[in-house]
Description:
Elements: H1 2-26, H2 29-54, H3 59-89, H4 91-96, H5 102-130, H6 138-166, H7 171-185, H8 201-206, H9 208-220, H10 226-253
Helix pairs in contact: 1-5, 2-3, 2-5, 3-5, 3-6, 3-7, 3-9, 5-6, 6-7, 6-9, 6-10, 9-10
Amino acid sequence: MTNHFTSARRGQWIALSGRAVRTALRERDLAFGFLAPMLFFVSFYLPLRYSMAVVGYDYAQYFLPVIVVQGMFFTAMSAADRAARDAASGVQVRLSSMPIEPWVVMGARMWADLVRAVVAIAGAVVIGSVFGFRFHDAAAALVFVAVSLLFGAALVLGADALGTATATPKIGAQVLVLPQLLLIMASTGFVPAQWFPGWLQPFVRNQPVSAQADALRELAVGRYTSALGHAVVWSVVLAGIFVAVSVAAQRRKR
């Protein structure tokens, strides 16, 4: 009986996640996820590389991590839109009336979102490699991907909850634009913290995007430093907060 139950849930998860991935392919969301990091990398790298080279930075190596982080934010925006469309179109209601556990539905969407996140990382690494970015250690490169996906999963949890709660396509992406823009621009992703005004430096050094960018930068050259712990802690804390918010929202609906 237990094996049948597990098999049924597995079949539901495969069917729902397959549906989400096929939709992303059909709507060219995966193609955008791959190309967007390339466009943003080129747009910022070309005007900034010479000024960073003057002070001794290999800017492709320095800059690539924040493009990966931005790819995770774009994945979250896509997740918010997908969850909102399911809620607005009645898909969520239909699925809730069927013998499918809510975690299976959310898990299937999460899987599709993480596929998009992997595609975004691939796009970022490809364009970074063209301009000189390199991984210096294979094992650290795998940790680089895992840390990126952990942060992406945390963001997707919050975005999925936002999209489900609003049931308004596009509004989730619009709500996330300003926070991600502020966090990315006021981070160590583009320039070191000491280049910011003194009063802003504590925030720049200690906010989540800087933690991710710093950790990924160290991992890219094969170093495991305290930055890795900071990045993981930020991802776990954010995931915990978003899960709690999501559960509270679901209870209110009931």
